[in-house]
Structures are given as C-alpha cells and as structure tokens.
C-alpha cells in the first residue's frame, strides 16, 4: 500500500444524526408519523433549518399547497435563507417565501402563472436563481449536487404508516421522495386524507420512505393544464394539423409520439378519426403515445386509433374515463391511472419517434423560447422531448427515415417538430430577429440565454404556410431560408426570395399545401371529430367529467 | 359534434381479464401470493402464454436465475415463441430458452459472458434479435411498444404480501415492476427468503405491485463487475491516468462525473489521493459521482475527496463499507445501499460534467464499439452516458468550458472521454481502419452498425501518447488528424504527419505529456494509493469484504 494511513477520524453520518435530532425535536407535535393538523407550522420550523435545501412539490399539475401555504407562515427569524427546489413555481406563496425572507435561492423548471412576478423578483434581487432546468434535470441533480435536506410532498391519501396513494397524479412524488429518503433527508407529505394502516386503494410510495404525514386542510391544488376546448380551435390550426398529418405523420410513418399542449396538436388529435381515417392511416400511425390523458384524444381512442398512452401526470376530469380504458392507459389494480414523470420522460426520450410542440417566439435559425420580455416561464419538459437523444440505439422506420452520417457513423434521428402560427393571437409575429431570451439572460446575469429548443435540434417546422424540413438542411443558410419560406408576412418571411422558394420546394426542404396534396378548402371546423367539450363528453359515453370552467351547458 | 357515434362495442380490459384468468389458473399452486417452491415450473407454464412478451430480470449485476433456470425447464410444447426482454443476457439458460424452442425473439441491452454464443445463435437463426438497446432505452420501450405480459424479477427478500426488499442491488427491479404492474402484466418475483408480513428491513417495491413471490433455491446470482484489482494496473495506465487528470479533470475543473469500469479509470481513482493531492486538486474536482461502489474509490473516499456517490447498482463485498459511509452513499433507513439504475442514468445524463469510458475498438473518426467479430456484446449504459444530452439547461464551469455556438444558440457541452491504450493486451491495435461492427451488422441483418459511442459525441480521447481535444475540431479532417496524432505505432498512428502534429499542438487539439507538464518518470505503481485488494481492505478499515476470487491471502 502506497500510503498506509489510519482511516481519518471523521464523522460519516452527519446527515443521519441531523435528521434524528430534527425528528426528535418534532416529536411532541406528532403521533407516530402523523403530524397534528394545527402544529404543521411548528413542525416545519423544527424539521427545517436555515440554509437548508428544501424540495417543495410543485409538479406540472399538482401542488403541495397546504405545505407551501404553511411554510409561508413560518417565522423568518427562525427559518431563513432556504434554498428552494421547486419543479413548477405555480403558487403565489412560492414567491411569498422569498419576499418574506424565508427563502433566498431558487432552482426551478417552470413558472407558468408566476412568470411575470418571478421576473420582477429576480430583477430586484429578492430571488437568486440557481438555474432553470427541465423537470427531470432538476430531479437528477437531487442525487448529485442539489441534495434535499427536506422534501415537502403531496398525495391523495396516506395511511398511518406513511404509505402513500397518489391516485392518477403520481407525477414526481416517488422520485423526489427517493432522492430525499435515501440520503437522510426528511420526507413530509400532505395527504387529502389519512386512513388506517393498509386501508389505501393501492401503494404508490412505500411508507418506509416517508417520515411524516399531515392531513391537508383541503384537497391539493390541481391545474387542468392539458385540457383544450375544441371550440377554441381555429381554421388556421386545422390547416396546420392537415399539413402536419400529411407532411410529417404520414410521410415518415410515425407510430409513437408525444404531443405538447396546444390548440394545434389538439386539432391533430381531433382530425385523426376524420381526415386521418379518410387517408387510410388508422393502425399505421399514432399508435403508441407518451401523453397526459388529453380530453381531445378521446375520439381517437374511441375510434380504435390508440393502442397505448403512458402518462407524465393525470388530467382533471379524465379519471373515470382512464379507469374504464385499462388496455390503453396505465392503471393500477385499484383501477386508477398511475402516472410517472421520470418514466414517461424516459419513454419520451428513448422510445418514441416524434415530439411535437409549439412556442411563443422563434428566431430565424429556428431557436425558440417561451421566455419573453418580462416573463421567466421556464421549460418544463420540452427540452427533454425536443432533442434527438444520441443515446438511442434501436431503430424504427420513422427514425431511420431521417438517417444521416456515413458508414459506422450512420444513424437515425428523432423527429422534433414545432408547429407555430406566423403571428400570435395578439398580432405580434412569432418569427423574430432575435429572441427576447437573449436580453433576459443579460439582465438576469444568466450564463446563457434560456432557449427552450435549439434550431439545430428541430427536424420540422409547420406554419399555416407549409412545412420546413429542417433536417434536410446541410447548412445554416439553408435552414434559415427554409424557415423564412414558411414565415408568411412576418418581417422574416417578407425577406424571403421567391426564386429561392422554388429551389427549396424542388430539393424537398419546403412543402406547400399543394405539394402535400392538402385541400385547403377542407380546413374548417367540420373536420373536427369533436367541436366542443360537450362533444368530448358524448364521445366518452359520459365518462369524461370536465372541470367547471370548461362547462358551458 | 362532427361525427356523432355510439362508443364502439369494444372490450377495453383484455389484459386485465387475461391476467385474472392466468392467476386463477395458478391458484392451486399458490398460497396467497406465495408460490409453492416445487410448483414453480407449473406456475410459469400457467401464467405465461405462447407468444408472450416476458421481461426477465438480468441486470448489470444481479440475475433472477432461479426463475430463468425454471423457465428453461418448461415444456416447449406448452410454452413457445416467447419474446424475451432481458437487460443483461448473462446466463447460459437465457440462451437455452432459444435452443429449446421456448423463446424465439430477443430484445436486449448487454450480453457480456454470452456474447460469443449469442452471435452464433443469431447467425444460425435460433435467436431473432429485435434490437440491441441501452438498459434504460429497453425499459423505456416497456411502457411504449414492448409491453411485458409477464415480468420475472429478483429480490433479496419478500414478505407474504409481496413487499420487496432488494438490499444494495435494487438496480432495475422497481422500473420493470412498474411497467408490468400498471398495465395488467403479471409480476412474479424470486426472493432469497420470504418473511412474515412487515418483517422486511425496508420496502423497495410495494407488495401492491407484485402478484407472486417464490423463495429461490439459492441466493440470486451476482457478478462483481465493478471490482478491479489494483495489482492489474500497468504503468501505461498510470501514465494515462496522469494525462487525464491534468489534461481534462484539472483543465476543465470537472466536479461531477461517472467512470466506466476499467483499469485506466481505476488508476485515476487511485491517484487522486497521491498525484491529485500534490496538484492541490482536492475539494476542487471529483466531488460528486454517479458510480457503483467501486472498491478502487475507497482511498479517495477515506481521504475526503468524495462528497457523494449515487449508484446504478451495488457491488459485491462493498455493502458493509457503503453502510458505514451514509453521508457519501445513498443508504436506506435500514442502513444498506439503495441503488436505482434509471435514476442514476438520469443523473449521469443530465446532472454530471463528464463521462469517462473505454472501448475495444475505435476507428479513425473516433467511432467505437465493443461489438467485435464473433462477439455481440451490446452496450449496457455507455451510450446514455457517452453523449452530450441536448436537453440539459443548467450550467457548470466544466460544461461551459466546452461551449459552442453563437448568440441564442450558444450552449455548453458534456465531457465525453474515451481512454484507450493504442494496443489491446492481446497485441491487436485498438485503432482500426473500420469497425468490426460494420461487418457484424451486415451479417446479422441489422439496419445500422452497432456503434457504442459515435466519434462526434466524444469530446476527448486519451492514449498513453497524449490527449486529443476532439471538441475543438471544426472538421472531420481535424478530428481524424487529432486522433491519428495520439494513435502511437498503430497503422492509423503511423500514417500521421509529424508536421501536422505541431499544428495540432499549437492549436490545442492535441497535448503531449510535456505539454501537460506530466512527468512521465512518476508513472509507476508507487503512485497508486492502493496497490492490491489487500490495500483496499486496509484503507476501508476492514469494512470491504472482497469476493473470494479477489482474495489471494
């Protein structure tokens, strides 16, 4: 042995000791693992210490809002300088924590409804941003260099032993629980109800991983993020859907896919049983999905288009429908959906042919971002889905159809599609000279502009003008020309050279509706298999129960 | 509603009905969830049907070998044409299944010890290969288009309710269990022992997800894959380790990383407390690891280099040591390691600065493969680790140091490093004109050559001659020239132009030992913090218990 030396006199279980101390301190507010309802604030002040990294469950849909509201009531004299790890910053109290001095640093993935306020708080120095991640990237760091001292999570029900039932909205709970539970972090869970031992419909997270449970004052907050009312779908979007279906789905024989949330992708889901059926595509495309239970997919499911749907999370109102279609959705033995963001993201990354999303801004090179001036909205899962995973090794026809490279270096490519209208509904052009994200990065001291999807990661862009086959562009110049050709009357599009368009069409870099044999006259709402939420309910045989805000009957 | 129609008269729970039938059929061999030991073959013949997709747990280390041996004893008249999904094809009976006509199709990720026989069986048509995947890619498909009808899994202990304790080797069990359990597949688990309800040290998989358990005839098979005896480390490998440490780890300030298994990376682990210490790098680099518990990391852990290690799986003999270092490793409340391949791969993909691996063959463009003539060994996890994940959005100094692109498109890059000796120990050159994988693909009818890591995904290559900084190469020509410059006296290296070498050094594409101020005279075994397995045991204070085959005292 080169350098024989006695094992250093070092403590190797500091975290375990700290955890034991904290839980002992909370003992008087706790009965077994169950926190007395009115003692939650004191328990939080006891099990959390200043400077701690605290993972607070804010997922894409569900929110541990009893815990976040209670944390915001803690005494900033006792609890301060917390480093919050929050997937989705969606609740006002998430930011109250910073204004009140309880927290100072934030690592996040997404900030939809709070995107304007968060930008202000970053601007005035109240919030110090670690980084904007994707969801799974943030969870990945929880086992590497952002180790939670405390995890505050969310379940539908818990039993006295801490076993958790998450129902349809499992989402991220097992992953965050695992990161904390197996590195001596404290796991504290709010549950809509606490039941006797072994009285849960099923177990989604073993009680073994959970230190404390508390019954919430009201059911956890949930956002119907993936519900698009067919009434809001425009004829422009139906045209885009037709172009995408012929120019991409049919052309490349796309069997497995993910749709982002948006009216254009909802339109595609709703023309599968009509336009898609007429094209003879049923059974040939769109069979296996990684997707939350979109209500607008119901007609395609009922018409026999869809073999399977694996989900990141649930969707309000869809539980009964999903429970009645177990061959399609992933249900537990209790009959309800089991979702799992990490597993579904893995599937979305390595097992599907195509991702289709949309964006608020795209520059001339195809870079896109939802971070625009005054809004710091984050990415959610789009960058994970929206790139070609170089670690994939199995082939499918669609993937091989986009092959590149020679000899040993030849490989296929995932389809990464952006569907955008040339103008936003506000009248501002989608295609811009320069992304707002560049300015935002400068002003917030970010090392890089917060780009959602990079132009060189995109294979296709669809507008109402046509389809750009960016994967065929051999140069940045060609990529820019193909984008300009479908950018309509935006400044970017007006600069396009009409002669250039002919070359691009000839070389297959751009296809116009006529090239795709899309009859634009068909692009009207009668092509939608459902034209309202009520239609979706009817398709579902009454199983879909839309949230109140989508009911107008 | 465009096309009002009644919900089709369709059965939506075929899988659930089939599962119920099968389990009912097995009822007489079962007591609750516990399969009578001597009835296992009959149970397998009852719950599996011809043509089924059967996920058989073969992980990197652990093997459900009681189940695989029993499956091989089934009657091919009853059970045939199974489509096997096996992560690691490591046991002879995995292939017996095909020779006996029980199985016909195979999707896999890795086939180490069976790589020669599998190539023969593919050649003669006995095995039809679906695809060679990475581990996580195969699991991803289990929720998309390779849905297991039955999952045959492996645990250290189970209770009568089916709760599982996996001990240090959790690996892939929860992921495969989830894919099957939540889509009405049958989950059958072998356990080293079956205990009374709630008598497990901890719960790794809830009993809720498990249909049947059976006590194994002997403890499950486990391979000490990540143990490298320091006695086998050569001076050439120590030189490589020094070059890597100065030319990559120190230069780019690599804080978080993964090491593949190999003597070169073992050498790096063993010179951290000696050479690394002398360079003043302790605390500045190599703090956070995604890594199985490598015995050769013990000296670095004991010397205070390592903050955390998150693991894909366990390692034989390391359990006591890992249990005594809970601040470093991820342990459960029972005190033993919790590993998880999917979570650790996620971390390896999105949360670390660098992957370092090695290969058997590399071509002039840097493409590498472990699939060589007559061997079909697969990839395991290397392609997941060995590429730059375009879905990453947070920055670290190392990642930013390799930035590329302009304006909105500027981003960092993961370090993907290959360490290879110019010649294999057999005397065959590592650098070859053309990968054997190309010929293998042709002969086996694969759509693409089975390349492990692509040249354009690699950022650095290290040989005993120097370091090639491939990420700086703007063209394929430069990449090839940089590789040739460090390819020594292989045919590829002999073709290199000496004048070109000067240009490459000047431009920073290649660094020789002198450029990195590496004193080659120091490259001898006295630089290793441990020079034998016995030394490692001493460093561990007697906690490391090496498997018998590594004991020579």
Radius of gyration over C-alpha positions of chain A, nearest whole angstrom: 25 Å
Structural class of chain A: alpha/beta
Number of strands of chain A: 23
Proportion of residues in extended strands of chain A = 15-25%
Q: How much is the average pLDDT of chain A?
A: 95
What gross morphology of chain A would you assign?
A: globular
What oligomerization state is this entry in? homodimer
Count of DSSP-assigned helices of chain A: 19
The helix fraction of chain A, in percent, is 25-40%
Q: Low-confidence spans of chain A: pLDDT under 50, at least 5 residues?
A: 1-6
- Largest interface between protein chains, with number of residues from each side: A-B, 130 and 129 residues
- Measure the end-to-end span of chain A: 81 Å
Could you describe the largest sheet of chain A, including whether it forms a barrel? 8 strands, mixed
């Amino acid at each position: 042995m080169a350098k024989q030396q006695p094992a250093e006199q070092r403590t190797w279980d500091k975290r375990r000791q700290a955890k034991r101390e904290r839980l002992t301190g909370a003992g008087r507010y706790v009965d077994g693992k169950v926190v007395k309802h009115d003692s939650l604030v004191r328990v939080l002040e006891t099990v959390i210490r200043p400077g701690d990294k605290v993972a607070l469950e804010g997922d894409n849909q569900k929110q541990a809002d009893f815990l976040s509201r209670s944390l915001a009531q803690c005494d900033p004299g006792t609890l301060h300088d917390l480093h919050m790890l929050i997937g989705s910053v969606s609740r006002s109290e998430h930011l109250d924590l910073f204004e009140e001095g309880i927290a100072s640093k934030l690592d996040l993935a997404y900030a939809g409804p709070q995107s304007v306020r968060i930008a202000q708080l970053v601007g005035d120095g109240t919030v110090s941003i670690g980084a904007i991640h994707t969801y799974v990237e943030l969870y990945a760091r929880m086992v590497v260099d952002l180790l939670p001292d405390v995890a505050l999570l969310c379940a539908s029900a818990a039993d006295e032993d801490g076993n958790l039932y998450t129902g349809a909205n499992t989402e991220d709970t097992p992953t965050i629980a695992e990161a904390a539970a197996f590195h001596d972090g404290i796991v504290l869970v709010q549950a809509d109800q606490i039941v006797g031992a072994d009285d849960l419909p099923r177990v989604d997270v073993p009680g073994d991983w959970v230190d404390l449970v508390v019954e919430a004052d009201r059911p956890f907050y949930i956002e119907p993020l993936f519900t698009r009312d067919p009434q809001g779908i425009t004829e422009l979007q139906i045209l885009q859907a037709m172009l995408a279906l012929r120019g991409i789905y049919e052309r490349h024989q796309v069997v497995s896919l993910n749709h982002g949330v948006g009216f254009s992708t909802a339109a595609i889901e709703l023309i599968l049983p009509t336009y898609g059926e007429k094209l003879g595509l049923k059974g040939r495309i769109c069979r296996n999905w990684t997707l939350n239970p979109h209500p607008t997919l119901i007609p395609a499911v009922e018409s026999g288009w869809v073999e399977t749907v694996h989900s990141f999370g649930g969707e309000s109102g869809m539980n009964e429908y999903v429970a009645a279609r177990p061959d399609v959705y992933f249900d537990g033995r209790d009959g309800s959906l089991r979702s799992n963001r990490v597993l579904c993201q893995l599937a979305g990354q390595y097992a599907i042919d195509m991702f289709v999303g949309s964006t608020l801004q795209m520059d001339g090179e195809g870079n896109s971002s939802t971070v625009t001036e005054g809004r710091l909205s984050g990415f959610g899962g789009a960058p994970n889905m929206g790139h070609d995973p170089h670690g994939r090794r199995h082939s499918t026809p669609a993937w091989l159809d986009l092959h590149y490279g020679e000899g040993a270096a030849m490989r296929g490519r995932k389809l990464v599609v952006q569907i955008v209208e040339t103008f936003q509904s506000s009248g501002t052009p989608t295609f811009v000279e320069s992304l707002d994200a560049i300015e935002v990065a400068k002003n917030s001291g970010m090392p890089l502009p917060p780009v959602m999807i990079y132009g060189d990661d995109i294979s296709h862009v669809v507008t109402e003008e046509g389809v750009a086959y960016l994967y065929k562009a051999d140069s940045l110049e060609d990529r820019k020309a193909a984008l300009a050709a479908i950018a309509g009357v935006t400044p970017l599009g007006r600069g396009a050279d009409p002669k250039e368009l002919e070359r691009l069409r000839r070389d297959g870099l751009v296809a116009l509706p006529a090239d795709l044999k899309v009859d634009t006259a068909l692009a009207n709402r009668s092509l939608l298999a459902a034209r309202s939420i009520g239609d979706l309910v009817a398709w579902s045989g009454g199983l879909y129960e839309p949230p109140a805000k989508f009911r107008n009957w």
